[in-house]
Design a protein that fits this description.
Elements: H1 2-33, H2 38-184, H3 186-209, H4 211-226, E1 229-236, H5 242-253, E2 258-262, E3 276-284, H6 301-312, E4 316-322, H7 340-343, H8 345-352, E5 356-358, H9 365-379
Parallel strand pairs: 1-2, 1-3, 3-4, 4-5
Helix pairs in contact: 1-2
């Protein structure tokens, strides 16, 4: 409605001045030619007006169509431009989305690498914390352990000093006792010297005048040797440990005939004669580790018995020092720290013949194998 009103007003502005101009021109011509042509002019004027009106109608008819076509073309152009703009926007958005999709793997990889690095850093930090904590705990533990070791060593050192003082005191007491005995027995020593001299004289007399008697004794001893039994005698000096000695001996001599001999409380052991070819003498551990008594000892039961058997020479004597804890599981026949074996004459002689052993409560494999071979050779001759 508003468009048609504007169009009518526009046509009025165009047509009215045009008509006025045509009328003015025709009137001027009529005035110059006179009255004669007034009619013609008027007729022409009417024709002109008619023509003008027709042209005006034609113009009025064509203007809306042109205006419509112009407006339609303009709208079409605007629509085309709007569609093109939408296409451009769509293409731009599509390119952005495509670029986003294209960059997505690299972004994901970057994100993964970043998270991986962060995770590694966290793991390293946690491991470092654990290591420092473990180091602190370990240092504290070793510090406590070192303190405990120092205290233990200090206590052990004090205990060792106390025990050393006790042993030193006992040794000094024994030395003083020996010195006292030696001083007290000087008279007896001189008496013994006189007796020895007398015995030498008697022996010389026997050597000169006793050949017949010696020959007879030799024949008697040979006869006794023929009576020796192929058996083993187990000698004990303690009633309490007699059964222990028997069980130990049975591990190596169980296949042979065995006898038991208890010498606890027997005084005249030097007169004992054995008929067994092998004698296992068991000596129990004592405080001083004296296997066979020496000259300074009051009682010499064990020493006299073994010396008598060795002098007789008819029995294979084996001395076994038992219940000695330091002799457990030896790979030798005896413990080298037992000084009595080196100091005692008869023990040195037996040790040279490999007939001295020290054990705890059983023979070691090495000792057991040796004794089995020894018994086999001694009893199967």
């Amino acid at each position: 409605m508003i468009g048609n009103s504007s169009l009518s007003f526009l046509l009025t502005l165009i047509i009215v001045p045009l008509a006025e101009r045509l009328v003015k021109d025709k009137c001027t011509v009529s005035e110059s030619n006179g009255t004669r042509v007034i009619y013609m002019n008027n007729q022409y004027l009417c024709d002109s007006v008619t023509e003008a009106v027709n042209k005006l109608e034609e113009l009025i008819t064509n203007i809306p169509s042109k205006i419509y076509h112009t407006h339609a073309e303009k709208e079409k152009e605007e629509a085309r431009n709007w569609i093109l703009g939408i296409h451009e926007i769509a293409d731009e958005q599509f390119e952005k989305q495509a670029k986003l999709v294209t960059d997505l793997p690299s972004k994901i990889y970057t994100y993964i690498e970043k998270n991986k690095e962060d995770t590694n850093n966290r793991i390293i930090n946690e491991m470092s914390k654990l290591f420092h904590k473990f180091q602190e705990i370990t240092d504290e533990h070793f510090e406590k352990l070192g303190t405990n070791l120092k205290e233990t060593l200090h206590n052990t050192h004090q205990h060792f000093e106390k025990e050393t003082k006790k042993v030193r005191s006992k040794v000094n007491i024994e030395i003083d006792s020996v010195n006292y005995r030696l001083q007290d027995n000087k008279f007896w020593m001189w008496l013994i010297v006189i007796v020895v001299v007398a015995l030498i004289v008697v022996l010389l007399y026997l050597c000169i005048f006793g050949m017949t008697r010696n020959k007879k004794q030799f024949l008697e001893s040979g006869f006794q040797e023929d009576k020796m039994e192929k058996s083993v005698v187990i000698v004990s000096f303690s009633t309490a440990n007699k059964q222990l000695h028997k069980s130990i001996a049975d591990t190596v001599a169980g296949d042979y005939k065995c006898h038991e001999l208890l010498l606890g409380g027997v005084k005249k052991v030097s007169s004992i004669e054995l008929t067994s070819q092998v004698c296992l003498v068991f000596v129990d551990k004592n405080e001083r580790n004296i296997i066979l008594e020496t000259e300074v000892d009051i009682s010499k039961t064990r020493s006299d018995f073994v010396e008598n058997l060795v002098k007789q020479g008819r029995t294979h004597v084996v001395v076994i020092y038992c219940q000695h804890e330091d002799s457990h599981g030896l790979t030798t026949l005896y413990n080298r720290n037992l000084g009595n074996i080196r100091k005692h004459k008869v023990l040195r002689q037996l040790q040279g013949q490999n007939r001295v052993l020290s054990i705890n409560k059983e023979f070691s494999p090495y000792q057991s194998d040796y004794l089995k071979v020894f018994l086999n050779e001694s009893l199967t001759e």
